[in-house]
Amino acid sequence: MAGGNISPRQKMINMMYLVLTALLAMNVSKEILNAFVSVNNSIQKSNSIMASKNEATYKAFANAEKDPQTAAKAKIWKEKADKIKAISAELVTFVETQKQELKKGSDLKIENGEEVFSVDNLDVATHLLIEKKGGDVIYDKMLETKKKLLATIDPKDFADNPAMQATIKRDMEAFAKSLPIDMTVAESKESGHKAEQSGKGWSEANFHMTPTIAALTILSKLQSDVKSSESQLIDYCYSQIGQVKIVYDEFQAIASANTNYCMPGDPIEIIAGVGAFSEAAKPTVTIGGANIALVDGQAIYKTQASGSGDRVVPVKISFTKPDGTIATVEKQIKYTIGTPSGAAVMFDKMNVLYIGVPNPLTISSGTGAEKTNASLSTGGSLSKGSGPGKYIANVTTPTNDAKIIVSADGKSTQYPVRIKRIPDPVPTLGGKIKGGKINKATLAAQGGIVALLENFDFDARFNILSYTFILVQKGGDVSPKKVDGPVINEGVKSSISRAKPGDIILFDDIKAKGPDGTVRNLPPLNLTII
Predict the structure, then answer these.
(1) Phi and psi of 237, rounded to 5°?
(2) pLDDT, tens digit, for every residue of 140-181?
(3) Residues 218 and 262 reside in one and the same domain
(4) What does the radius of gyration of the chain's CA atoms come to, in whole angstroms?
(5) pTM value surpassing 0.70
(6) 448 forms bridges with which residues in the sheet?
(7) Domain boundary, last residue among 421, 448, 478
């Protein structure tokens, strides 16, 4: 360019072109380095969010282990989840030490509380990860970690349940293909040579003359793959607590009558059994000296009230515990048969008074509604409703010791009553979807989160105050969005449009306010895109 017989002016132009070309090359290099810094920071932030999400799942395991209804199964799956956690943490920590070695080799300094190092150093990654074979060690550890993670959920552990064993075997084969940990070395189209699928080939493909910041980004991506694999496997473990038949380590035997006060001729029904029916428990029930067959896990004894005064019916429940021993619980069901001139209290909806809703009652006596008065001893008040003998109870304070006091014909009779707060509702999408697998079109068509009260007779509504939407994509990308109100807004819909099969959708930190004025924290909605 500068050779030949050219004028001084042309020589100057050529020189300026060379200088400009060099400057452009430097600018592109700086932009690429800055891009790697941004990507590395983004991956590390995603890793932090993923770690928080995983911790929330581990806390859910701990809560399930404390709940008598889920303790037995939670213990089995929590042990597996804890092993997954330890395996993941070990590798993430190891990779973090390699990242620190890269930074130290690139003149790491702490300035104003932040790490500063030569992000453009081209020698350190080559030296540590290729020449000293550090990359080979990372490669082997990643593959070994994947094997260990998959081995924590061994179908052989469920040999006593062939159907479940087959399901777990099939699921683990799918995980072997879908977990984000993938150390495949990409083929180079430029060289035309087949890539060597080994630690050496992987290291040379990723770290030969690679700037320090680029090497750090690759290692951060490996950490993300491990945390994402951990997340998928522990979510699978947690889902098994609800998918398998409940087995209690502490059975709760139950026995109750449909009433504790009745009149001659009224039907009396006693129900006894195990709190949650399990075939393994094999319960036998005797009521009033007679063996009662179980129907859907319950023994139902029916008789008719006769005479007057207090009555006691003995109930005996025997069942097999998970350790194979036989446990027996004996209870006495008590009720009172009144005389026709006595007073009676009937709950028009449920046999508990609930805070925040009007509770209808019917109170009667032999003296007539005009000469009958009723009041509540504590926790709220009674007021007369429309019609003879109709009352409305408005309660404010939970208690098991409240009493309805009925005064008739110069006598006062007390009826024990419980006051409870309205149970927590169940979060759903559109009032129907409670979690599980869902296609993107169906998810996008939902208008928002609806809180449903299941098996509750009162017309009580919970309003969704806020929730956090989280899209967990394969590879560790996490996109949390805080949303006020129940609606799936445009920002959430935009994230849903980016979801791909296998990605996890979480509606977390759901807050709802009920008619009693309390704000409830509802469990998350967990969905998987198919």
Answers:
(1) -60, -45
(2) 999 999 999 999 999 999 888 888 899 999 999 999 998 989
(3) no
(4) 34
(5) no
(6) 487
(7) 421
